Amino acid sequence: MLAHPDDIDFGSSGTVATWTAAGTEVTYLIVTDGDAGGFDDTPRDQMGPLRRAEQEAAAKAVGVSDVRFLGYPDGRLELTLDLRRDISRVIRQVRPQRVLTSSPERFWERVAASHPDHMTVGESTLRAVYPDARNPFAFPELLAEEGLEAWTVEEVWLTASPRADHVVDVTDVLELKFAALTSHVSQVGHLDDLEEFVTGWMRETGRRLGLPEGRLGEGFHVVHTG
């Protein structure tokens, strides 16, 4: 559950590739269409549909077919009850054991990771996980009108967290990660050094979180919700 198309692919699509390879079913929930993104003169009314299509292609590259969008405005997310309800709805529909989202904490050493939309989605998702989705009396219309019973998510994985305490070795799925990431042509098509930059970033993550020398990692702060 992340803010923009491409967020999952920069930080976590290698991890997703390892999950789908192991038979885990994965659903993407993207809160905005990313209509404020891009680097060229693509008309704004075309950017949202374009980025949806790019995200669907990126998801397919790592074995994900269920991609959902909430359609909130890019760059203007706020922590609201409506957003919490909409995320809770998807949690109750999908009934996941694990939710991956962005950290609600600002990462001062990597401030670009702490886009306001990222932090808002992270906090909204954590509130949806606890208490909203598991509480049958929160957003009672989800049960009364839509038949969606309460559901408890067992753990949350936070990306771009200053408290990262877990690393996934993605070295062996690097090709899949970059197939996903480069699907976002409207966002990365102008970056000649994308693979070099991202590989260096993952190499440092692996080193910092204890992988063997030269291995590539994606880092997370894992929160158990029990």
TrEMBL record:
Superkingdom field:
Bacteria
What keywords are assigned to this protein?
A: Zinc
Q: Cite the InterPro entries for this sequence.
A: GlcNAc_PI_deacetylase-related (IPR003737), LmbE-like_dom_sf (IPR024078)
Q: Which GO terms describe its biological process?
A: glycoside metabolic process
Give the Pfam families listed for this entry.
Answer: PIG-L
- One function term, GO molecular function aspect: hydrolase activity, acting on carbon-nitrogen (but not peptide) bonds, in linear amides
The record's PANTHER family line, in alphabetical order, gives: LMBE FAMILY PROTEIN, N-ACETYLGLUCOSAMINYL-PHOSPHATIDYLINOSITOL DE-N-ACETYLASE-RELATED
Q: What is this protein called?
A: N-acetylglucosaminyl deacetylase, LmbE family
